[in-house]
Protein: BMP family ABC transporter substrate-binding protein
Amino acid sequence: MRGVAVVAVALTSALSLAACAKDSGNSSNNNNASGNPSSGCKLADKPAAAPAGSTSADAGGKVDGSALKIGLAYDIGGRGDGSFNDAAAAGLDKAISDMGVKKDNTKELTASANESPADKETRLRQLATGGYNPVITVGFAYADALKKVAAEFPGTKFAIVDATVDGAANVTPLTFTEEQGSFLVGVAAAYKSKGCHIGFVGGVDVPLIQKFQAGFAQGAKAAAPDIKIESKYISPAGDFSGFQDPNKGNVVTKGELDAGADVVYQAAGKSGEGVFAAAKAANKLAIGVDSDQYNQPTVAANKDVIITSMVKRVDVAVYDFIRAFAKNDLTTVPKVFDLKADGVGYATSGGKIDDIKDVLEAYKAQIVAGKITVSATPTK
Structure:
């Protein structure tokens, strides 16, 4: 039986390669010039490169953070989620390594699934009354609680990832252009799809995750105007279980793969583990999010299907905020962490997109130069 299966796979691969070779030989869409003749899509011409400019990262001089007491309030999943909570943790770890922040002077607390706003307020008060300053909150779900608690502790500096808090002078927003990074992995998905059919799986149907969907779809269609895109959310707005349910992530992904998608991009937190497992079971490809998930221990069993990840540099934002606080100059924190500020990007671990990196860099340069504007709202 194994011998029969091997022969069948070999024959299928040979036929696929022959079909791809025939398509690229008869097509006039510059697939070969774009460096990816195996794509099933009719690809648009690669854009001309444009000057990318310099990033706005504050890299100069050593900073002493040994006297700091830092509190970190994670969203559900916390450290070890293999996604953006882990990225925030990496920023704290780098501050410990680079600035001499004492591990014993840090405290990390984690939200529970579907907890009340009062629970978040209690967590933030616990950190503030414990003398932790600054206090960093990870996730837009902390916005309402932070607005209330920040007013109670005007002497404490807070930061919030993925949100702003209007009227709170002691709160620094750490926001990102997720749509820009998602645009680039959308291009990658179009170039790597064999059937010109891809998918997006979001954790919760909220404006933040819609930014991932919007950029991904725009990038894919810029690279391959005729591409077909499946889009599905695990849970509706208000139900945050969609970020914490690998089984549902698996089911939703299987539905998209059964519909014909062969590359799936997930923005679903811990539920992304189920997305990767479904892709591997179907012998399809996947794209990670937030961290370089190819190197994440939590998804190591399925990392061979991960062609890239949309890297949202929460680690950079957390580190830059801590560094600016230690220097007593929060004006150095970027207003938004975009492509230009190295706030978002894409991962190359595993070498699966090395052949199209020049294409991705060309699109990136166009975005940074303002020649391409990426929408943060999905097209209906």
